[in-house]
């Protein structure tokens, strides 16, 4: 009996170690591939013809869809950022998704909203009831829809989709700030490869504590909270470099809900966003890939690492836990719904590379990590652990993890270097190291809970994150 | 010690060394960049007034220009940043300054570099410098193996302003290595009205349907009245692809001459393709001819939502008479009434509203 | 002495425009964002403003509308030349509705801009 337990625990220990090493090595690989692409893209800066895209009357119009549920803290900033985009032709459709705060009143006052009869452009099914539609009288191309909430972001986006008039739709969260050139940069692939590009995403960065003014990020600053700092490194790794290299392999699975641009006809064709999904952003990308491959229409999902959308991230463990649980739950739903694509060569790199990776490392990863941690504890209690060997193995895993995080910060410093102060840079490096102890393990626990929730088929409920709003820069001193 | 623990120890040490190396690199980079940026800014501040002075036509300008021959390389960056924002004589003067300093020659050599970004950057630079001697080299780049470079070459040809590029640009639309219509179109717009004859020729004797559609679009954007007969013929020509006829219809709307009303009305009434009917309805709305009201009202019950909406919008923009027709429909239940109400409420005479606010 | 205020967030453009207008004997002040531009216009009461549209902290259109609504009649009637990369027909319309005197699209000819600035000022204000 004891022998069987010993061998089980020992096997588990080694499996976990091997698993962590393989995962971190692939992370390092993703970081390096992503870094290469970022460097190449930076070499083109100034020669990509953005000024021509902006000046051209042939540039396709964009409908920016903004779902907002109780977003009074940030909605005016977000709208200001979207409406001052450097883009030739755009409209904004804001959906007030049953807000109980002053979201609508603030917008109505700022933009002088007046009720209008809506012009529907699609019939994507919607569950919430549309109460009224309004238009700005300030000359800004803004439409606002009020609807009853069914507590799902996808429902709000589908209503907005039904009102969008332009050939491209951009989905932006109401707690996110777009940089002035963001739309122009993500729209460029649609102009340069109009036959294939169906979706494009940009980089999401953490906006907490950044200095902003009416929707413009004046100076990115790192929050003083370690939890936010760690997420800053995490976002750089996964959302900047990770997605860049996935897109490079033509296997991009996720275009973040905080900022993504799609061809409207394609989104309408697949019936809008899946109302039951908790990860409706990733879900849309995979559905589009599946649909278009099945229809024999070649398509591309692009990632533009130069584009930036600033977003607020959770500042407390509790909120972070809920968010990550939801992501993991959504990923499980997604992989289950599209299980026929996993490992299927018909779907190219998405089926062969990305989906299996997400299944093994993103979805099941937490199981292995949590069980592994437990097995190490058990082994220690049973005295099966040789302290010397164990320390060494933990050291290897830690060193590899720290190397990945340091490489991420190094790439950021050598390429975009958004954080100008040396103190922020040091904090970022330290946060990268700290991510490996504590954060990573708790994160695995949150994700495990999401997976369990998915297995138990808990009814998905979209819980909003408490917003703090953006840090506004003090008014410039009177000249 | 087993081999495994030794391997782990070595791995840990190597990884730690790599981390330390990266940290050192980051520290050095961070410190050096600050100094480098400050130095560049200083240089720019010194050079800027000299460059502005060199733009003058008089003797002082010539002297300032000669003084810049030996200026540091920061000058080139300064000029290159500014060039895309300028046009006219001052832009030409800055282009000549770059040529004098050998920047143009170096870029021309870079057009055959191995790295695509080098070729692309070189093309962009040559386009901004506007040297007509480079047209052939840039034209050759329209068939480059990298799509990014082809687009950069097309944009550069547009900016350089040599009208000889019009033909090759139109032909680049339909090749296995093609340049997309959005990029070619903007380049042709950059070439301006001197290429109108090329565009008209592309409508009558098209190298490809894509070129024909784009040429029609651009003639419309230019508001080229001379192209009217060609475009009228194109809209009416049922053998042409619907996309091409749609472009011609849109162009006729942009030109805005009521002569086009009957042809557009016929396209609206007789075509099976909704996209073409939509284009025709929108064009009629833009022209705003009273003759079109009956045609639009007749198609107002069109089975296609978008066509109906376009007809309703056109009527809403067609003065009292058009709005009266719409109002008659607005009481209906169902989609037709909905479209009428939407069109009426979406055009509450926006101009008046805005003017009132401004006052 | 004629006083011109140039508001543009691109320092190279601002300094070029300031240089060109300065050559004609005008006093030129430069601001790099909308809010500072508006404050400067109220305080300095210039004879003309050259204004960019897309700028941080208040865009040019908002500045223009705020100038027109200013209680000080000299500020409210100051000629404003918009200098912007926004080139669509509807943008030009919006610019004039907001109260612009003239509208110059980037890429621009500095010489043409100077002519337009001269034309927007009373005769003899600048000496070409």
UniProtKB/TrEMBL annotation, chain A:
InterPro entries: Glyco_trans_2-like, Nucleotide-diphossugar_trans. The keyword Glycosyltransferase applies. The chain crosses the membrane at residues 12-33, 347-368, 388-411. One of its GO terms (molecular function) is glycosyltransferase activity. The keyword Lipoprotein does not apply. Belongs to the glycosyltransferase 2 family. This is Glycosyltransferase, catalytic subunit of cellulose synthase and poly-beta-1,6-N-acetylglucosamine synthase. It comes from Geodermatophilus telluris.
Automatic annotation (TrEMBL), chain B:
One of its GO terms (molecular function) is oxidoreductase activity. Coiled coil: none annotated. It comes from the Bacteria. InterPro entries: ARM-like (IPR011989), ARM-type_fold (IPR016024), PBS_lyase_HEAT (IPR004155). This is HEAT repeat. It comes from Geodermatophilus telluris. The lineage of its organism: Bacteria, Bacillati, Actinomycetota, Actinomycetes, Geodermatophilales.
Automatic annotation (TrEMBL), chain C:
GO terms for molecular function: phosphorelay response regulator activity; transcription cis-regulatory region binding. The modification 4-aspartylphosphate is found at residue 52. It holds the Pfam family Response_reg. Gene3D superfamilies: 3.40.50.2300. SUPFAM superfamilies: CheY-like. Residues 3-121 form the Response regulatory domain. This is Two-component system, OmpR family, phosphate regulon response regulator PhoB.
């Amino acid at each position: 009996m004891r022998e069987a337990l010993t061998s089980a625990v020992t096997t588990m220990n080694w499996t976990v170690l091997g698993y962590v090493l393989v995962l971190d090595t692939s992370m390092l690989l993703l970081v390096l591939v992503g870094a290469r692409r970022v460097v190449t893209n930076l070499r083109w800066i100034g020669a990509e013809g953005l000024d021509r895209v902006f000046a051209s009357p042939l540039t396709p119009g964009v409908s920016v869809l903004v779902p907002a549920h109780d977003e009074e803290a940030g909605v005016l900033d977000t709208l200001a950022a979207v409406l001052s985009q450097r883009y030739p032709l755009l409209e904004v459709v804001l959906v007030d998704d049953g807000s109980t705060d002053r979201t609508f009143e603030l917008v109505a006052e700022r933009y002088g909203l007046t009720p209008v009869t809506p012009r529907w452009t699609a019939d994507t099914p919607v569950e919430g009831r549309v109460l009224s539609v309004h238009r700005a009288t300030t000359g800004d191309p803004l439409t606002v829809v009020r609807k009853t909430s069914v507590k799902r972001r996808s429902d709000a986006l589908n209503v907005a989709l039904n009102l969008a008039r332009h050939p491209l739709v951009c989905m932006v969260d109401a707690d996110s700030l777009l940089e002035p050139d963001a739309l122009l940069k993500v729209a460029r692939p649609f102009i340069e490869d109009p036959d294939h590009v169906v979706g494009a995403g940009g980089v999401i960065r953490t906006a907490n504590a950044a200095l902003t003014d009416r929707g413009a990020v004046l100076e990115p600053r790192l929050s003083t909270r370690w939890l936010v700092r760690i997420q800053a490194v995490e976002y750089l790794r996964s959302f900047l470099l990770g997605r860049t290299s996935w897109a490079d392999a033509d296997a991009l699975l996720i275009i973040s809900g905080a900022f993504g641009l799609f061809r409207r006809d394609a989104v309408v064709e697949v019936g809008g966003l899946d109302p039951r999904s908790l990860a409706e952003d990733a879900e849309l990308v995979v559905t589009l890939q599946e649909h278009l491959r099945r229809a024999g229409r070649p398509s591309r999902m692009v990632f533009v690492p130069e584009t930036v959308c600033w977003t607020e991230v959770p500042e407390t463990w509790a909120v972070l836990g809920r968010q990550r649980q939801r992501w993991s739950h959504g990923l499980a739903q997604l992989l289950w719904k599209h299980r026929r694509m996993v490992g299927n060569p018909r779907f190219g790199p998405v089926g062969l590379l990305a989906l299996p990776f997400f299944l093994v490392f993103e979805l099941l990863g937490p199981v292995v990590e949590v069980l592994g941690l437990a097995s190490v504890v058990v082994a220690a209690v049973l005295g099966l652990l040789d302290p010397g060997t164990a320390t060494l193995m933990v050291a290897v895993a830690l060193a590899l993890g720290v190397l990945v995080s340091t490489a991420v910060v190094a790439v950021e410093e050598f390429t975009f270097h958004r954080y100008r102060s040396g103190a922020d840079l040091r904090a970022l490096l330290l946060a990268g190291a700290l991510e490996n102890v504590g954060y990573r393990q708790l994160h695995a626990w949150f994700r495990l809970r999401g997976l369990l929730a998915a297995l138990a088929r808990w009814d998905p409920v979209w819980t909003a994150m408490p917003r703090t709003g953006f840090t506004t820069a003090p008014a410039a001193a009177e000249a | 010690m087993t081999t495994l623990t030794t391997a782990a120890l070595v791995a840990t040490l190597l990884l730690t060394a790599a981390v330390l190396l990266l940290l050192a690199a980051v520290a050095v980079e961070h410190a050096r960049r600050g100094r480098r940026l400050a130095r560049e800014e200083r240089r720019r501040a010194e050079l800027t007034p000299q460059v502005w002075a060199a733009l003058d036509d008089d003797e002082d300008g010539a002297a300032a220009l000669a003084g810049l021959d030996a200026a540091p390389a920061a000058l080139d960056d300064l000029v290159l940043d500014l060039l895309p924002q300028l046009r006219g004589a001052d832009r030409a003067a800055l282009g000549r300054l770059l040529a004098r300093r050998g920047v143009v020659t170096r870029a021309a050599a870079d057009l055959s570099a191995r790295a695509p970004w080098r070729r692309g950057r070189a093309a962009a630079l040559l386009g901004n410098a506007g040297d007509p001697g480079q047209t052939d080299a840039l034209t050759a780049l329209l068939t480059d193996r990298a799509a990014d470079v082809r687009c950069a070459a097309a944009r550069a040809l547009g900016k350089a302003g040599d009208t000889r590029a019009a033909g090759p640009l139109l032909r680049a639309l339909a090749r296995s290595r093609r340049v997309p219509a959005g990029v070619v179109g903007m380049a042709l717009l950059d070439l301006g009205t001197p290429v109108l004859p090329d565009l008209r020729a592309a409508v009558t004797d098209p190298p490809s349907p894509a070129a024909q559609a784009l040429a029609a679009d651009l003639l419309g954007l230019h508001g080229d009245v001379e192209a009217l007969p060609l475009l009228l013929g194109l809209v009416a020509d049922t053998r042409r692809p619907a996309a091409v006829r749609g472009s011609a219809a849109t162009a006729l709307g942009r030109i805005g001459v009521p002569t086009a009303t009957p042809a557009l009305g016929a396209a609206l009434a007789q075509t099976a393709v909704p996209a073409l009917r939509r284009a025709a309805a929108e064009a009629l709305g833009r022209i705003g001819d009273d003759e079109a009201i009956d045609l639009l009202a007749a198609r107002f019950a069109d089975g296609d939502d978008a066509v109906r909406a376009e007809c309703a919008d056109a009527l809403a923009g067609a003065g009292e008479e058009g709005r009266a027709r719409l109002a008659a429909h607005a009481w209906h239940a169902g989609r037709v009434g909905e479209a009428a109400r939407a069109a009426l409420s979406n055009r509450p005479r926006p101009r008046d509203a805005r003017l009132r606010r401004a006052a | 002495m004629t006083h011109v205020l140039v508001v543009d967030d691109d320092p190279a453009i601002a300094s070029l425009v300031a240089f060109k207008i300065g050559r004609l004997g005008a006093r030129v002040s430069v601001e790099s964002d909308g809010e500072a531009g508006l404050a400067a216009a109220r305080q300095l009461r210039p004879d003309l403003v050259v204004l960019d549209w897309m700028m941080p902290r208040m865009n040019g259109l908002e500045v223009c509308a705020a100038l027109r609504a200013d209680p000080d009649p000299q500020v409210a009637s100051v000629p404003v030349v918009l200098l912007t990369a926004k080139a669509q027909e509807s943008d030009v319309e919006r610019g004039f509705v907001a109260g612009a005197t003239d509208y110059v699209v980037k890429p621009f000819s500095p010489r043409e801009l100077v002519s337009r600035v001269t034309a927007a000022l009373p005769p003899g204000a600048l000496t070409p």
